[in-house]
């Protein structure tokens, strides 16, 4: 299972702590150090849509000027923004087989994540 995020993000920390507590082995991908590719983003977009991947509640989004925020109206523009500012990606993203789980929700984890 692969977890994508930023190590100092509280939601990512909660997620990793939960996974460790439940003895679920993970591989961690740090967006800040390793970035993200357009191909990876397109794969996730096919599963959940680009709107779900852009974290409009986070600090990075709120720090964007109104014109930039208003310009994110398509998959192409969202991908460009997420590559440039990886902190705007909702996190964590957990690749779980051929599905992904966005964010941290204990009930979702309990029902959708299985030990291997």
Question: What is this structure's SSE topology?
Answer:
Layout: E1 2-5, H1 10-21, E2 27-30, H2 31-34, H3 38-48, H4 50-53, H5 59-63, H6 66-71, H7 75-84, E3 93-96, E4 99-102, H8 106-112
Parallel strand pairs: 1-2
Antiparallel strand pairs: 1-3, 3-4
Helix pairs in contact: 3-7
Tags for this entry?
116 residues; alpha+beta; Glutaredoxin; 4-stranded mixed β-sheet; 8 helices; 4 strands; 51% helix
CATH class: Alpha Beta
Which CATH architecture would you pick?
3-Layer(aba) Sandwich
Average pLDDT value? Answer: 95
Radius of gyration: 14 Å
Helicity range: 40-55%
CATH topology: Glutaredoxin
Poorly predicted tracts of residues: none
Structural class: alpha+beta
How many distinct domains? 1
Taken from the alpha-carbon principal axes, the silhouette is globular
Q: Compute the separation of the termini in Å.
A: 9 Å
Biggest sheet statistics: 4 strands, mixed
CATH H-tier superfamily:
Glutaredoxin
Widest sheet: strand ordering: 2-1-3-4
Query: What is the helix/strand order?
Result: EHEHHHHHHEEH
Number of strands: 4
Q: In percent, how much strand structure appears in the residues?
A: 5-15%
Number of helices: 8
Structure in words:
The chain has helices at 10-21, 31-34, 38-48, 50-53, 59-63, 66-71, 75-84, 106-112, and strands at 2-5, 27-30, 93-96, 99-102. The protein has eight helices and four strands. The protein has a single domain (2-112), classed as Glutaredoxin (3-Layer(aba) Sandwich), CATH 3.40.30. The chain is 51% helix and 14% strand. The mean pLDDT is 95. It is globular, with a radius of gyration of 14 Å. The N and C termini lie close together (9 Å). By secondary structure, it is an alpha+beta fold. The longest helix has 12 residues, at 10-21.
